[in-house]
Amino acid sequence: MDTKNQIIRVTPLDRIDEAIIDVLRHNGRITYEKLSTLVHLTSRPCLERVRKLEKRGIIRGYGAVIDLQLVSPGLSLLVLAALSNQSGRSAQQAFESTIKKCPEVYDCQLISGHYDYSIRMRCRDMEHYRVLTETWMNNSELHIDKLIAHPELSVIKSSLPGL
After folding, report:
1. If you average pLDDT over residues 31-45, what whole number do you get?
2. Is-contact 130 111, C-beta < 8 A?
3. Facing residues of 77 across strands?
4. SS3 of 132, please?
5. Is 53 exposed, middle or buried, given 0-12, 13-18 or 19+ CB atoms closer than 10 A?
6. Phi, psi of 144 (to 5 degrees)
7. C-beta of residue 152 within 8 angstroms of C-beta of residue 77
């Protein structure tokens, strides 16, 4: 049986698990001692709960929040991409493979509506964006019908801490 098509039964989280997730979402570097105090547990049960959340895949990892503007000044864009209606799954796979390999792309979702993909990317400037997307548009395997770019002006809200 194909594991992608299996129904995943999810055990609901209790209020303590939700509290642990909320704290770690804002501070992944917190000590287990401090975390256990905040969620009203002793250290050992708190650690066991975190490990269970990791094992279940609810907590997938920990990382640093990087200010991309300071590391690589440039332009952040939200790009909507539409593939040709006649293109089929092979074009979708080719497009997704291209996007996964592209270092300028840091987020991509398959979406519903008039467009097929929502892409968040970072380029040095609009010329860099133009050259990059021209190579995509000229690649006949991708069957791109339309790309619409929306340059980011300002971050109003982010789920990442400190932003």
Report:
1. 95
2. no
3. 121, 151
4. helix
5. middle
6. -75, 125
7. yes
pLDDT in tens, 45-100: 999 999 999 999 999 998 888 888 888 789 999 999 999 977 678 889 999 999 99
CA dist., res. 141 & res. 89, Å (int): 11
User: How far apart (Å, rounded) are the C-alpha atoms in residues 144 and 111?
Assistant: 15
**Beta-sheet pairing, 105-110 with 144-151:** unpaired
pLDDT tens column, 90-142 = 889 999 999 999 999 999 999 999 999 999 999 999 999 999 999 999 999 99
Pairwise CA distance, residues 37 & 58, whole Å: 21
CB 123 within 8 A of CB 132: yes
Are 145 and 83 contacting, i.e. CB atoms less than 8 angstroms apart? yes
Which contacts of 44-47 are long-range, i.e. CB under 8 A and separated by 24 or more positions? Answer: 46/20
Furthest C-alpha separation in the chain: 59
**pTM, full prediction:** 0.74
